[in-house]
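Hypothesis: this fold can be encoded by more than one sequence.
Test: take the structure tokens below, design a sequence, compare later.
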């Protein structure tokens, strides 16, 4: 006897029981007869409603026999169990990559098909998901009907308002069922879960790099395309990522929403706060594989590692000088253009380097958080303290590759090295004379301005250079000083012998 088959009139899909056909039919009619009594969300199946209701009761009836982790849904338990067995049942027909969850496979497939079924009627931009299209469309209407009661910030979607509100309440309703880490957004939880499965379903077609989230892939791809879709309303500067625009915008608003619980210092970016906290904990999580030197910042480790490889990928178009880091090249280039894009809000003084502005600003605040254990001298920056401590230890970690001479400060090594390269990057605007060191240029400039900032406190005679003042002072003390050895002598005869 042939078994009766029930066929869907829309898509011709066949079912062995009429009940399954009825449930399936709701995917076409979008009928959702079951609603939650708590939040009124609607569902097409009763089983979906039951599973959803556990988000309110926090009930977790399914537990793992291996690690005793508990889950609200049986499907989540099955997915979790594969983290123990490393079983990946779903694989891609195109590239053969395996996945532990079917949803991850479906996301991965878009990297091959590039299928985008939904397009914007205004700008024709295409999307893989209808929800993405709906979200995008509001960028044209600029409609933001949902506003925060606390700070009045407005949003396109209600769920974005709900997510934002948690920044005020510090609520984190989404927790990882493996390690119990909590998140304010479900997307954050989903991304975190990949750290357990180690799955990266999205890959870059250009360089092959793999990512756990599509948004991260999209942001990465702009490195290749050089696309910068986010522009600042104030200065029109463009950015490849929205987070970079948000961070930049705080330079205009002077907003610093992240503060240190220890010293109260405020920061415009959370990553800067995290790095700052290491000044209190003395934590250095990044270390060099070659010399075991430790660093607070990952970027500092990368820069340090180039000392071992001697690799210099970036060169100056004007003078040909090579640099291991692009930021160093950009900084160097301002010596040719004389550009000073960083200015002090207090006194208006301009600087070519941001770090110099930060150092200058401390002259207004007089803030000195770091002190020497040996002599008690205080410093505004830890790097200054580290350099100062070498006076006591006589440590000279920077050595010249050409002659082997060692220095306690990196800056002194740079100046010394120009003796070998004959490089003179600092030039006088008046006479064109070039110098290897900026302070020598500053001294030279006084020959044009006739400025004499050093005066003798005995006879009030003025000098343009400190060395000339020191030499003059011996005329009062009757001491003689040798220009070569710098030794002091009480009479001219002994000086001549030297």
């Amino acid at each position: 006897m042939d078994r009766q088959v029930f066929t869907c009139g829309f898509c011709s899909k066949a079912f062995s029981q009429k009940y399954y056909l009825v449930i399936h039919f709701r995917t076409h009619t979008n009928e959702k007869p079951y609603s939650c009594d708590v939040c009124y969300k609607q569902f097409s199946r009763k089983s979906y409603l039951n599973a959803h209701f556990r988000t309110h009761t926090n009930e977790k009836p399914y537990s793992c026999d291996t690690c005793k982790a508990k889950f609200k849904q049986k499907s989540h338990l099955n997915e979790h169990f594969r983290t123990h067995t490393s079983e990946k049942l779903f694989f891609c027909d195109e590239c053969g990559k395996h996945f532990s969850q079917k949803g991850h496979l479906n996301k991965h497939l878009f990297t091959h098909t590039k299928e985008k079924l939904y397009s914007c009627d205004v700008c024709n931009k295409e999307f893989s998901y209808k929800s993405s299209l709906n979200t995008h469309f509001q960028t044209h209407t600029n409609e933001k009907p949902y506003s925060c009661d606390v700070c009045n910030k407005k949003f396109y979607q209600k769920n974005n308002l709900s997510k934002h509100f948690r920044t005020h309440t510090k609520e984190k309703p989404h927790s990882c069922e493996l390690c119990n880490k909590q998140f304010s957004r479900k997307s954050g939880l989903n991304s975190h879960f990949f750290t357990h499965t180690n799955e990266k379903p999205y890959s870059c077609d250009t360089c092959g790099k793999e990512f756990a989230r599509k948004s991260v892939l999209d942001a990465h791809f702009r490195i290749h395309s050089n696309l910068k879709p986010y522009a600042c309303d104030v200065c029109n500067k463009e950015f490849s990522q929205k987070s970079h625009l948000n961070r930049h915008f705080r330079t205009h608003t002077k907003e610093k929403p992240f503060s240190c619980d220890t010293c109260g210092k405020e920061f415009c970016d959370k990553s800067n706060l995290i790095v700052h906290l290491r000044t209190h904990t003395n934590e250095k999580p990044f270390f060099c594989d070659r010399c075991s030197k430790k660093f607070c910042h990952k970027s500092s480790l990368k820069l340090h590692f180039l000392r071992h490889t001697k690799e210099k990928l970036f060169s100056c178009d004007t003078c040909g000088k090579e640099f291991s880091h692009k930021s160093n090249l950009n900084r160097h280039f301002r010596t040719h253009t004389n550009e000073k894009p960083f200015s002090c809000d207090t006194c208006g003084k301009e600087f070519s380097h941001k770090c110099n502005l930060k150092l200058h600003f401390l002259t207004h605040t007089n803030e000195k958080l770091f002190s020497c254990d040996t002599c008690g001298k205080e410093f505004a920056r830890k790097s200054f303290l580290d350099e100062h401590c070498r006076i006591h230890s006589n440590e000279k970690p920077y050595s010249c590759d050409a002659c082997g001479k060692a220095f306690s400060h990196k800056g002194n090594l740079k100046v010394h090295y120009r003796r070998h390269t004959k490089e003179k990057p600092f030039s006088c605007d008046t006479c064109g004379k070039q110098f290897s060191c900026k302070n020598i240029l500053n001294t030279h400039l006084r020959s044009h301005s006739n400025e004499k900032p050093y005066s003798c406190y005995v006879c009030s005679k003025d000098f343009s250079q400190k060395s000339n003042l020191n030499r003059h002072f011996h005329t009062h003390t009757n001491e003689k000083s040798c220009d070569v050895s710098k030794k002091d002598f009480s009479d001219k005869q002994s000086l001549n012998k030297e």
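The first strand starts at residue 6 and ends at 7. DSSP finds 18 helices and 36 strands in the chain.
Hypothesis status: open.
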